[in-house]
Design brief:
The complex is a heterodimer of chains A (694) and B (326). With 694 residues, chain A is an alpha/beta fold. Helices cover 40% and strands 16% of the residues of chain A. In chain A, helix 13 runs antiparallel to helix 17 (429-450) and helix 22 (560-574) packs across helix 23 (594-606). The two termini of chain A are 41 Å apart. Residues 690-694 of chain A have low confidence and may be disordered. Chain B is 44% helix and 13% strand. Chain B has helices spanning 5-14, 30-42, 55-62, 66-76, 79-92, 106-112, 144-160, 172-182, 195-198, 202-210, 227-238, 254-266, 281-288, 305-312; strands at residues 95-98, 119-124, 133-137, 163-166, 186-190, 213-217, 243-246, 271-275, 292-295. Chain B has a 9-stranded mixed beta sheet with strand order 1-2-6-5-4-3-7-8-9, sandwiched between helices. The chains are: A alpha/beta (694), B alpha/beta (326). At the A-B interface, helix 6 and helix 7 of A face helix 5 and helix 10 of B.
């Protein structure tokens, strides 16, 4: 059980000619032989997984129990379970997506036929896992591995409340159980903090971060259309495959659509599709080079390991050096030359600031949720949303933090119920502000990076406290040359038109929100639902979005170009069947003429009459101030009334911006109840909750 | 939250945490733990010293057979899942006390000796466990006199600074406990089941939050109700209090009867039984067996309750006995 023996295992695993990378044996020895607690800080691709696979193997041969590996990233798990099999390590994962395999896994555990169990941090608070799965291991945890260990620290770039729970568990583990934390990126402050929390005996194994093959370049192009054009010009210059990172789900879809239109084999990858996207299939296709370009959000996880990535292009600027380095570091693991090009534009700061602003629920949300839970034995998420005016995602974030803080617990009685525990809770305003300040300084550091005139790699390494930062001699600044920032004007116009021609579909609502009409069925009868509708654009986005924004809040008037764009969309692209016979619009007392004036002009351009059949009975607060479905729908009920004498035929129902969709659902319902034909909603813009989804 | 190695070892050996119901190795009963605890003491070992030993080492150091040593070894191997489950319980507001902890209630040690539970789970103010107070016991189904008495005792306790001890179940327990809490007093509920669920009740939770209530159980916090555990729990109510008042009992059957006769035999504390014209048959029989009658309505001012109980029971002196076994 020494270095030579372990090297033999390693060679069996990855090849006869291979040797340990510097630091690998030392880390294995620390946990598997000396039974220590160790933190490994090594760049992605260095081979952290080899360390815990080999350590697991050695420990199992000594008769230890299975390894428990905690990782927040499912894409990591899929890759690694396959890899573990190569040296006969039987690894299993238990997650909400593989329920059908649980029984088999539990059986394997019972027979001690599982060597490594991969779980997400959330599992540690799951009753089934604690009562049925963990006891199968009989608690004989041989090695406790915490992946992405930088999350333990508030100073880490990735705030995950669940990691506080992991720290408490590690603190309660007896001394004899070895613990291994791994991370690709942790600066000195984070390392010190992790050490403080996991115990002073934690040994730190730290390696150099620089990637020899990577050529960095920064290019600033203000508009999305310019950046789209740049991609179309420059992507053919790369031989192999690559990743384009975007900040939002909508941007990945937009970029993908453009690239497909320009003939590239590109696919979007994100977690924003309610889990409908087959991400494992996309990963496989990308690994096999069937997809040349993956256009991804950060959902393309840290552990995703494809050695032959030639380029990583950022369509927008990431929020921190750590995030950027992790993403760009996917390129060039096993290729001689690779490129990391950071495109930055006008919208970057706006989006990043939005992320920072919406990172935490306000203190009011925390306190309101607790107050409602205190009055009850248990409430479902929807019951909470019917009582607290906050968005679903904010409520979920608040509940997660409250749970980790021990103020709220979860139980299951046909559905998940949240309840208040007797533990006291005070808002951690200082802690939250500290994290927000950190985010702002990270953002400032990225702003400095894109403007940095000297070696880009050295800038990154210094920011990450690399032990030996030296100029790379390969980046565009060191070489004094790189990809050209200029793009042909015609292509920019084409991209501009692409952005303006995108159709955004409005899906009809099929159910009333929970608790809106307590004594009615929630299902909206099919014959009283709207037909699918269209929006011209996403509010505030590139394309028409900015013009709608200026029209609504600055000019108080929507210009004729929006009328033409809308009628072009309706007549030439959408072509609803049967075609609407008349137009009506949602009334507002706040801006009485804004929408009706636009609708009148649109009706004229479509050659059909405009009939204002709705009236506001009272002015509701602006819909966007309502934070969730129940609140929004309640806000509409009873504030509009309809003239029951309706013209006949299908109707185009116009509003300026669709947010929750409840106003249009309610208005369409009133039209249908009063005997109208099909109702087609149309809005100038769709509001965007900036959706990144992890 | 931290936990001492001794407590950790006791939890691993004596509790079901992280153990499957069909596991090859079952946790130790009190009858099995006590001799082990004595043996450890006799060779100057602490329970925590067992952690990290191989089964062979356990065998040779304790001088026991290998089969027994294997069992201890396997139970002690669960420290990983114990850590995870204790963390979850703590986040729900549930903590543990073992016989190795200083804060473990002295009254249990003294009065129950070796039958003091090795492990207690609790939520709320643990300092209440064993403070001067009165236990109220009785069946779930009560007549009017029983209800009035339960409420009276709860109120008096609350107003005179005594802890109200009860089983935390429906009926007499809840009535007396709520009476004590609403008169700004304190209460302890010794539960036979479902600690996890009981603390979700908004009134209980609020009282725990104020530091006025402690709910405690020797059973797993998630355990469902069973007759057996309810029986085993009875003595834990009596032995925390200074006096017990039995509000209503069936004759020769049921948990109240079993607990009351056990308490009368053991003479831990003076036992009173509600005495009124329509009292249940069980009450009469308990008085015949030596329980003291407790009149209804109470003839004195409510603040005099403790003095009255003291006077009435002057003849009965429970003898305190010292014992320190983990």
């Amino acid at each position: 059980m020494d270095r030579g023996y372990t090297l033999g295992l390693l060679q069996k695993m990855i090849g006869e000619d291979k040797d340990f990378r510097p630091g690998q044996w030392e880390a294995i020895e620390a946990v598997a032989i000396k039974k220590q607690r160790a933190l490994v800080v090594q760049r992605t691709g260095w081979g952290k997984s080899l360390v815990y696979f080999l350590a697991t193997k050695l420990l199992r041969e000594q008769g230890s129990g299975p390894t428990v590996l905690i990782s927040p990233l499912l894409s990591l798990m899929r890759n690694q379970i396959e890899m573990a099999g190569r040296i006969g390590i039987r690894a299993f994962t238990i997650n909400s997506a593989n329920k059908e395999e649980w029984a088999n896994i539990e059986e394997a555990l019972g027979k001690d036929e599982c060597d490594l169990m991969l779980i997400s941090p959330e599992r540690l608070n799951n009753e089934h896992f604690l009562k049925e799965v963990l006891p199968q291991i009989s608690g004989r945890i041989g090695l406790f591995v915490v992946d992405e260990a930088h999350c333990i620290s508030d100073w880490g770039h990735d705030f995950r409340p669940d990691y506080r729970r992991i720290v408490r568990i590690v603190q309660m583990l007896p001394k004899g159980v070895p613990v291994l934390g791994t991370t690709a990126t942790a600066n000195d402050r984070v390392v010190k903090d992790v050490q403080a929390q996991l115990g002073p005996e934690l040994t730190v194994h730290r390696g150099p971060l620089a990637r020899e093959s990577l050529r960095l370049q920064n290019i600033r192009l203000s508009n999305q259309s310019e950046r789209l054009a740049w991609l179309a010009v420059n992507l053919p210059k790369f031989k192999g495959s690559g990743i384009i990172y975007c900040l939002t789900v909508a941007d990945t879809e937009r970029v993908t659509g453009w690239l497909k239109q320009k003939g590239f084999a590109a696919e979007a990858y994100h977690a924003g599709d309610d889990g409908n996207m087959d991400r494992p299939a996309l990963e496989r296709a990308f690994l096999n080079n069937e997809i040349k370009i993956l256009v991804a959000t950060v959902a393309l996880g840290m552990g995703f390991d494809k050695p032959d990535i030639d380029f990583v292009i950022h369509f927008q600027r990431p929020g921190s050096v750590v995030a950027y380095y992790q993403q760009v570091g996917r390129a060039g693991r096993a290729v001689e030359k690779s490129y990391g090009v950071l495109l930055s534009g006008d919208e970057d700061d706006e989006i990043q600031n939005y992320f920072i602003e919406s990172a935490f629920p306000s203190t009011r949300v925390f306190l309101d949720i607790l107050q409602e839970l205190e009055k009850n034995e248990g409430l479902s998420l929807y019951e909470i949303l019917a009582r607290v005016n906050t968005s679903k995602s904010m409520a979920e974030k608040a509940l997660k933090i409250l749970e980790v803080d021990g103020a709220v617990g979860q139980t299951f009685d046909k559905k998940v119920l949240y309840f208040r525990t007797p533990n006291p809770w005070v808002p951690e305003t200082d802690r939250i502000n500290r994290v927000l300040d950190l985010r702002r300084s990270e953002l400032a550091q990225m702003q400095a990076y894109v403007a940095h005139p000297d070696c880009l790699m050295k800038f990154l390494l210094e920011a990450l406290d690399d032990p030996n930062p030296v100029p790379c001699g390969r980046c565009a600044n060191c070489l004094g040359k790189g990809f050209s920032a200029s793009v042909p004007h015609e292509l920019v116009i084409e991209a501009e038109n692409y952005l303006k021609g995108a159709q955004v579909i409005i899906q009809p609502r099929k159910q009333w929100p929970v608790g809106l009409f307590p004594d009615q069925k929630r299902i909206i009868p099919l014959e009283l639902q709207n037909s699918p509708g269209r929006s011209l654009c996403y509010y505030g986005d590139a394309g028409w979005g900015k013009i709608v924004q200026t029209g609504k809040y600055r000019e108080g008037h929507f210009p004729d170009e929006l009328v033409y764009a809308a009628s072009h969309l309706i007549l030439d692209l959408w072509k609803p069947e049967p075609f609407p016979a008349w137009v009506t619009s949602i009334p507002s007392t706040r801006h009485p003429n804004l929408v009706s004036d636009f609708s009148t002009r649109l009706a004229k351009s479509l050659g059909i009459p405009f009939h204002p059949v709705f009236r506001r009975t009272s002015e509701a607060p602006e819909q966007k101030t309502m934070q969730n479905s129940t609140m929004q729908a309640r806000n509409v009920v009873g504030t509009i009334s309809i003239d029951p004498q309706l013209p006949s035929g299908a109707v185009l129902l116009v509003d300026d911006i669709i947010d929750s969709g409840w106003t249009l659902t309610m208005a369409g319902y009133l039209l249908k109840v009063n005997g109208s034909g099909p109702v087609y909603p149309f809005t100038l813009a769709q509001a965007t909750g900036r959706n990144t989804n992890g | 939250m931290t936990i001492s190695p001794d407590s950790q070892a006791i939890l691993l050996l004596c509790s079901h945490i992280g153990l499957l119901s069909n596991s090859e190795y079952s946790s130790l009963t009190l009858k099995e733990w006590n001799p082990l605890a004595k043996k450890l003491q006799s060779i100057s070992m602490r329970p925590g010293d067992l952690l990290g030993l191989t089964s062979e080492e356990i065998q040779s150091q304790l001088g026991i057979n290998l089969e027994e040593a294997e069992r201890y070894y396997h139970l002690l191997q669960r420290s990983g899942s114990l850590a995870i489950e204790l963390e979850r319980l703590a986040s729900l507001g549930i903590l543990v006390l073992t016989r190795a902890d200083q804060e473990y209630p002295t009254r249990y040690r003294q009065r129950l000796k070796e039958s003091a539970p090795a492990v207690l789970f609790y939520a709320g103010e643990k300092a209440l466990l064993g403070q001067p107070g009165i236990a109220v016991v009785g069946s779930r189904h009560l007549d009017e006199a029983g209800k009035a008495c339960a409420e009276f005792v709860g109120n008096s306790c609350g107003l005179s600074g005594l802890v109200l001890y009860s089983g935390g179940a429906k009926g007499v327990d809840t009535i007396s406990m709520n009476a004590a809490l609403t008169s700004r007093g304190t209460a302890v509920g010794i539960l036979a089941d479902s600690l996890e669920k009981t603390i979700r009740n908004p009134e209980n939770r609020a009282a725990i939050g104020r530091g006025d209530l402690c709910l405690v159980t020797p059973y797993s916090p998630g355990a469902p109700f069973s007759v057996g555990t309810a029986m085993g729990r009875n003595k834990l109510i009596y032995t925390l209090a200074d006096y017990a008042i039995i509000v209503a009992s069936d004759a020769e059957k049921g948990g109240t009867w079993a607990g009351a006769t056990e308490a009368l035999r053991a003479k831990w504390i003076p036992i009173f039984v509600l005495d009124h014209p329509n009292m249940p048959e069980g009450n009469k029989l308990l008085i015949q067996k030596g329980a003291l009658p407790f009149p209804h309505p109470f003839p004195e001012h409510h603040l005099k309750l403790k003095i009255w109980l003291e006077e009435q029971s002057a003849t009965i002196k429970p003898d305190p006995r010292q014992l320190s076994l983990f």
